[in-house]
Specification:
Number of domains: 3
Order of helices and strands: EHEEEEHEHEEEHEEEHEEEHHH
Structural class: alpha/beta
Oligomer: single chain
Largest sheet: 4 strands, parallel
């Protein structure tokens, strides 16, 4: 019987992205071993192969890693990669792994400023609208958490992703329902437009109370709208709107883009 898939992750000393990658692969039911080393470090086989039984029910012995995924620093062969060649292990850079893992997914990087109550605001919008998005984020203790759901969208930490792929992109593009969308900040409110130049007004919200994160929060709201989340669904997931006043009453402005969630499957696969 073939051994279970197990990836040896070669990451540089001190890198913060390694544990996040481990958590992501765990969500795909892939076992991992994280080894943070330098290119010059000698081979250390400790914990790479564990004598005995890996799965007591199936009686499968643990043969160690079945493949190696490495950071760009390890493009030049080092002791671990040379050992992997002798073992006949598949080896590939982390960039390639992410491309294959997320080839059919929509990857949505968000910053730490774009979160409410410990979760990215964009993830809350998508979850509330029935998209069943997946998540790669961190809990209150700073530990990585990966949750894989049925939808195509992955909301991930922008800093983590940039640390792995720099300015490249992964995943499939999404259909932008509001390519000309924009927001305008007023004294105590923010207006959202489907197309500002054509005065296609979406709606109005009270300003986000934390000024340092304001632009990031509005970016998440606009992205949710561009992904097909309706304005009604956005407003239902705004927590700082409890004491908000409908500023459109008594004016000639009406909310332009209010869509019912009738065809959420179309938005999933667009």
């Amino acid at each position: 019987m073939w051994p279970k898939r197990k990836i040896l992750i070669l990451a540089p000393h001190g890198t913060e992205e390694g544990p996040g990658l481990q958590s992501l692969l765990g969500a795909f039911q892939i076992e991992t071993i994280l080894r943070q080393v330098s290119v010059e470090d000698p081979l250390d086989l400790k914990d790479l192969t564990i004598p005995g039984v890996d799965d007591e029910d199936e009686g499968l012995p643990d043969y160690g890693p079945t493949e190696i995924v490495y950071w760009p620093e390890f493009e030049v062969n080092n002791s671990y990669r040379q050992w992997g060649e002798k073992q006949g292990l598949l080896q590939e850079p982390v960039f390639n792994l992410l491309h294959k893992l997320w080839e059919q997914e929509v990857i949505l990087p968000v910053s730490e400023d774009e979160q409410e109550e410990g979760r990215p605001l964009l993830w809350k919008f998508l979850a509330g609208a029935g998209y069943e998005p997946s998540l790669l984020w961190f809990d209150k203790e700073g530990r990585w958490v990966a949750e894989r759901r049925r939808g195509l969208h992955w909301v991930v930490s922008a800093n983590w992703l940039k640390g792995l792929i720099k300015d490249s992109s992964v995943g499939r593009p999404f259909r932008n329902w509001l390519s000309e969308g924009a927001w305008v900040i007023n004294d105590d409110s923010v207006d959202f437009y489907a197309n500002r130049s054509k005065f296609r007004f979406i709606g109005n919200l009270p300003r986000y109370p934390k000024s340092e994160a304001e632009e990031s929060i509005y970016r998440s709201i606009l992205l949710a709208l561009q992904l097909g989340v309706s304005w009604r669904e956005v407003k239902q997931n705004i927590r700082w709107n409890v004491n908000g006043v409908e500023r459109n009453q008594g004016t000639n402005r009406t909310e332009y883009f209010v869509e019912d969630a009738e065809h959420v499957e179309d938005r999933w696969y667009s």
